Hints:
The complex is a heterodimer. Chain A has helices at about 5-10, 15-35, 35-40, 50-70, 75-95, 105-125, 145-155, 160, 245-255, 260-275, 305-310; strands at about 130-140, 165-170, 175-180, 190-200, 205-210, 215-225, 230-240.
Amino acid sequence: MKTDTRSTSRLRHDPLVRGLGWASALLAVPQVVTPAGFARALGVDDASRHRSATTAVGVRELAAATGLLGRPHPAWLWGRVGGDLMDLTMLTRALRNHNGRGLGRTVAATAAVTAITATDVYAAVTRTRRSTPMELTAATTVSQSPDEVYALWSDLERLPDFMAHLDEVRVTGPRTSHWRASAPFGKGGEWDAETAQDVPGRLIAWRSVDGADIENSGEARFVPAPGGRGTEIRVTLRYDLPGGVLGKAAAHYFGEEPHQQLDDDLRRFKQIAETGEVVRSEGAPGGKRARGEFPQHPARPLTVDELKEALA
Amino acid sequence: MKANCWTGRNSVEVQDVPEPSILNSRDAIVKITSTAICGSDLHLLDGYVPTMEKGDIMGHEFMGEVVEVGPGVSDDKLRVGDRVVVPFPIACGACASCRAELYSCCENTNPNAGISEKFFGHPTAGVYGYSHLTGGFAGGQAEYARVVLADANALKIESDLTDEQVLFLSDILPTGYMGAEMCDIQEGDAVAVWGAGPVGQFAMDSARVLGAEKVIAIDKESYRLDMAAAQGYTTINFEDTDVRSALLELTGGRGPDKCIDAVGLEATHGASHIHLYDRAKQAVRSETDRPHALRQAILSCRSGGVVSVIGVYGGLIDKFPAGAWMNRSLTLRTGQCHVQKYMKPLLGLIEQDKIDPTRVITHRLPLSEAPTGYDLFKNKKDRCEKVVLTP
């Protein structure tokens, strides 16, 4: 992900972010200067480990304040959320082991931290950028001439045969087409695209036109491989991944590794070029959906119903 | 139909499963007439190969009669009624690896190539009944099987040779042959073969066909060594003999010129503390394979010799004798067999009576008794060497 300097300057003038930064700073001072007094104010007794915990929290708050007021970034907001959860854990333990003196103050402190946590979560979620620009590249070599490989790729309506995230591509004019996709963009989408560059035997590039759900572009370059090894194909896809860093992490978690997907897409393109179609096994009968099928169907023939679903 | 399925570590079961259907246009469906249990099936049984799923049909050595072909198979290549042997690796015949006759490294036939790549660096070919790492293809220990890219893979048998004479063209005969061929055997060569199982026996036969002066079999099962001795090969039982000194003795102190590891990842060892060391590391998954045979082959081979590995390895080994390998100019050659390259020439050798593949068969069972066959073979009961199953 690229660092977005505009978002840093935007956060610098964001009242909520500045407010949270000052709150951190104000809380930190008494915690660091008189940890014992602060612990007493919370209704917890003056044990040495309580004092050192309070000092540590103070130092953490100072760091958050410096970050939020100096070089604001959503990461500091998420850091505050993490700190809140630590504080709530410590307060919960304090409540459970409470000796009764100052219990009311501890309860009040817990309620206050809960409210602060809610504010921090709100700030972190709303101030995190909602999309991450992604650039994916992959390469493969196919044992055919650049002209043959170019001809296969430039039949855009065949792209969904091997590109896992594409459901349909419909050619709508000499340079225009309509695309329909599902994952890995997090949600399905449709857009119109235009051919940006078309050099037979060498290059095809396309991009979404204005108003697309998911702004994206891509290109495929074809270069003769050395020593009669056929054609090297290099593909680049660029798009904004919704959900920002979190969306990216979630996509990884659910097995939609975009780089891996593009690698697999090219592997299937090679299968079509060299064998005529995408190879299916009993374990991965869906062809291009193989990765999404883990854990796979057992390596045994499919029932009639399973077959219908797999070939659909 | 009935099929022998993996149902968990150390457990296979004959189950009722649906009959196969055409999934790709170049598929064929084969009614299986003979199928076999391979030593590498035992690695699946024992749970050493990851990505097995309960219900996977086992088996990658099978032959039969074509009963259906897909629309992409042309008549001159294959038609209903043809009698075919099916090679275990699925090859496309068109990619760079296939064009270099490295069929088991085919770049196009493994739908799970992305996962295979994580284990092996680059993906390998699809294989029938051999885990989802090699594609998740249903195996051939069944009444019917789907043959993928059938026109590029199935070998038609047009002579009247019996099933038992040609069945092993699917794997173990070409595998043994490739082990010997990789040795680049020269006049006067002594070839030592670790493992006197079926693949080892065929490696020995092939070494002799390719001109070896002396063939030495190393194993601990006396009945398997007897089988080798009956062919005129010298034998060493590593349970009661020190292998290195016996090999020096047999080769005038030179060491074998060529060594073949036909054992692979589940080796046992005469020296029990070393075996326990590897077994323990394997149990805690810090080493997946037990490479005793490989280590011994490298240490035994004469300087400048070839160590040819056809026993299956799946993951990582340690205590690899890299010093011996490097300082003594050894050549290490290996590969899953490129069966398609060897089927026709070996069929020729069978027709000319130069090799008799039936000599390794000790047990013939109906498919319904497959689990008994696995038990006999794995536990070396009843002098079991090779089990052939008939549906």
